[in-house]
Amino acid sequence: MNVTQHRSISEFAQLIEPLLLEKEAENNLSLGILNNRNQSKDTIMLSLYNGRGEIVYSTLRTPPHLWILPSIAVDSKSFISHLAAYLYKEGFEVPGIIGEASIVRYFIHSWEQLADMKPELHMEQGVYELTKVNALPQKRGNLRLACPKDTEWLVDWFKQYYKETNELHQLQGAEQIVEELIRGEKTYIYVVNGQSVSMVSRARSTPNGATINGVFTPDLYKRNGYATEAVTVMSENLLNEGHQFCALYTDLSNLSSNSIYTRIGYKRVGESLVYHLIEK
After folding, report:
1. How confident is the model at residue 110 (pLDDT cuts 50, 70, 90)?
2. Burial class (CB in 10 A: 0-12, 13-18, 19+), 273
3. Core-most of 9, 55, 85, 181, by most CB within 10 Å?
4. DSSP SS3 for 103
């Protein structure tokens, strides 16, 4: 098993994209990074080859984020132990892993044999895909694009969102994140009777799909179905733009949000795990 590090994003994408596209919705994170090449200049890209010189797997990381282990069909997961050994031997920083559940588990087991680090399970995620939106019984509001005048209160909403999703490392940079989302026209506000009641963001795009994230409703407006309506409208808009599907991640421990997305028309296509690796 050989590991190759790539310097050219376009070259790496050309090699690995056919494998990633076999499960496009599941691999939206890797594909989204490769698709947004202007923002991935610092990305570390590795490919794994078998003894016949055939590419069998890949991984990538954009510091300071986690290593991504995509969902790629393989005959054996033994290559993951080779990948772990390569990362350890070459001195790559490995703050954590996100990716297809069974592959992540195998990597964590291999890494524990090598490094004096403690794995901490951060989240079990469902990967969902939608190709057709189920009709809503009611739509009480409209989505509007967030604008600079929304920045102050949106920062507060995003901080609440990060606390709810246990992404506390994002709190310090919340203002910068919000400013970038507004500048990139990514975040939308769901407005009912003139009142902002929920939010949703469009994230990365893949060759045939688009990803949704940042779904949040403040406590005052929870349990009114506003998030359901916001995600439904956003999903419809993305499909109408020409995307063949929408994808999103859910926290599998949050049963209510999973049921909401199912009602809209999302179907679970995979499972992803997020592990942080802590020095002992």
Report:
1. very high
2. buried
3. 181
4. helix
The residue-averaged pLDDT of 50-72 equals: 93
- What would the DSSP string read from start to end of 223-256? TSSHHHHHHHHHHHHHHHTT-SEEEEEEETT-HH
Instruction: State how far the Cα of 217 lies from the Cα of 244, in Å rounded to an integer.
Output: 27
Span 122-152, pLDDT tens digits:
999 999 999 999 987 788 999 999 999 999 9
Sign of CA dihedral 176, 223, 252, 268: negative
pTM above 0.85, yes or no: yes
Q: Which residue, among 101, 110, 119, has the nearest Cα to 1 in the 3D structure?
A: 110
By CB atoms closer than 10 A (0-12, 13-18, 19+), residue 192 is middle
Q: What is the mean pLDDT of residues 98-116?
A: 95
Domains of the chain, each with CATH number or no CATH = 2-127 (3.40.630), 133-264 (3.40.630.30)
What span, in angstroms and rounded, lies between the C-alpha atoms of 139 and 135?
10
pLDDT for 256 equals 79
- Tell me the H-state helices in the chain: 9-20, 28-35, 78-89, 101-114, 151-164, 174-183, 226-240, 255-264
Instruction: Give the mean pLDDT of the chain.
Output: 93
